[in-house]
Amino acid sequence: MKKFIVDRRKFLRSFFYALLSFQLIYVFVRLLKIKIPQNTQSDLYDAGDISFFENGKMYPFGSAHFFLHRFEDGGFIAVSSKCTHLGCAVQLKADSLQLECPCHASAFNSKGEVLSPPASRPLDYYPIVFKDGKVLVNIAHPVRRNKFEQAQIKYI
Ligand code: FES
After folding, report:
1. Which of 78, 81, 99, 122 has the most CB atoms around it within 10 Å of its CB?
2. What digits encode the pLDDT tens for the residues 55-96?
3. Residue 83 CB less than 6 A away from ligand 1
4. Which CATH number does 41-152 carry?
5. How many helices (H) and strands (E) does the chain have?
6. Cα of 95 to ligand 1 centre, how many Å?
């Protein structure tokens, strides 16, 4: 009878440690999941069919706070409309591919590069994904940058 009680104690202790281990693993996995940014469907803004966008034109998406530019060679870039000086909303200058800030007159080209200060760095840009013939812009993850690089242009 005594042996049975000792075995039962051992069993309960082992069971307790196993349960504790599973709980720690669960918490650890949950923490990892929180730290890994993933593209959820709601992060991706559907800008429209790829075929809709003409080469050499820029399209404003005011409610999503970005401008989508399709270059002459067919590449795309989505630049934020938030000025890198103090955060005002830049506007597309009529009949041009230039973006201007109404607050302190910074200006940017279609790649988001600074043409005139006081802004000192390019507009942030948003990663683009092509899926099922659509242009999807990841508006949840703006990318801060200090200069324009060719790799920021996305091709089909
Ligand atoms: S906020 Fe745009 S130039 Fe100052």
Report:
1. 78
2. 999 999 988 899 999 999 999 999 999 999 999 999 999 888
3. yes
4. 2.102.10.10
5. 1, 11
6. 22
